[in-house]
Structure formats: structure tokens, C-alpha cells
Amino acid sequence: MTPVVRRTWAPRGQTPVLYHEVRRGHLSVISGLTISPVRHRLGLIYRIHERSIDGELVRAFLRDLLRHVRGHVVVVWDNLGTHKGAALREFCARQPRLHLEYLPPYAPDLNPDEGVWNHAKRDLANRAVHNREELRDEVAAALEATRGSRRRLRGCITATGLGIRLP
Length: 167
Known about the structure:
This protein has helices spanning 55-68, 86-93, 112-124, 132-147, 150-158; strands spanning 28-35, 42-49, 73-77, 98-102. It is an alpha+beta fold.
């Protein structure tokens, strides 16, 4: 819950100060960009959790994804350990519409979701929250700002240089 501090302004000769209380606690977020091949719509799906993301939460996210997205779903993600567990492989084997593709290791620049987090961190910069609920609200607002901006979503995808065709 320590605030991200970025460059800011202050009157000349006065150092800007951001006051916050040192508190333990965190939130974990799982998110993904969606591209509809038929309607050419871009989207952002996310879930905020008060515990660390594990295989169980990844499976729940994929279940929600399959519930909300029609047709075949291709998930492209990084090589995080929670994306590769035996229980997750079994779950995916039972889902004929779900196809998994992995990015090369240590290649965050190829992951469009990193762009989402760059926008979110920029939106959250220089804000001090006082409790987990406030943090949840601020994170959700930052993600909603990206979700609501077609320009931002396109930028997250095109910045990867993967050559993904967009409408």
C-alpha cells in the first residue's frame, strides 16, 4: 500500500512531500486484454483479490473468461509459475474452447497487459490511500479508465510490436 511516487510539481525551491502511513497489506490483480475477431472490439477483463494470485484464482479467472467470451479463446500469457501448474493443465484439457500460448521467458515487452499496468501505475502515482478498500477503489478506477479508452487499449497491443491486426 506504499504509494508509487512519480515526478510532480511544486513551487520553486520547495520539495513536494507525500504523506502516508506505513501499512502492511496488498491487493493482487489478474487481468487480460480481449480482441473480438468478429466485431473487432477491444476489451479489458480483470479481477481484484485480497490475496496472492495462485492456481485456483487463475482457474476461476479463466472460467469467468470462458463464460463471458464466445467462441474459441486463445490466452497468451507469460511464464509465471501459476500459469503452468498441473491442476491448471487438467482444467485447460477439459475446456475445448480454451487454447494457451506462452510468451518467451523474460519478455515483458511482448506482453500487452504490461501496458495496462503502465497506465494504471501512472494513474495511481502520487496518491496515498489509507486502507485496502480505498486502494481497491483507486485500482479499479485506474483500470476502468484504461478499459474505457479504446486508444489506450490499442496502444497496449501495438506497443508490443507483435503485429497483431487491430480494427
